[in-house]
Amino acid sequence: MYTTCPKCAYVRREADTAPAGQCPACGLVFSKWLKAQMVDTAVKPAASLRSPRQALLQYCLPPRPQLTGSEWLILVIVWGAFLVCGLYFINLDFRSNAIGNSWFHNINLVFHEAGHVLFRPGGRTAMLLGGSPFQVLLPLLLMGCFLQLNRDAFGASLCLWWAGQSLMDVAPYIADARALRLPLLGVGAAADSPGMHDWANLLRPRGWLRYDTTIAFWVDLAGTVLVLLALLWGAAALWRYRRDLRTRG
Question: Is residue 54 part of a domain?
Answer without folding.
Answer: no
